[in-house]
Amino acid sequence: MDPIPVIADFSTRGLPPDERARLWEEHNASSLIGLGCRTLTGDVLEAAERTVQLPQLRLARVTGTPHVVDRTQAHIRANPTDAIVAYFALKGDAFFYHESGCEMVRPGQAIIGDGDKPFMRGFSHGLQEVVLEIPRSTFDDTHWHNTFRSPLTVDFTTNPHARALLRLIGTTLQDGTDSSAVVEATSIDLFLMSLGGPPASPSAAHTAAASVFIAEHLHEPDLTVPKIAAAVGISERQLSRLFAADGVGVVRFILDQRLDRAHSAVLSNPTAALSNIAANCGFTSQSYFSKVFKARYGLSPSALRSSRQHA
Question: How far apart are CA 310 and CA 58, in angstroms?
Answer without folding.
Answer: 47
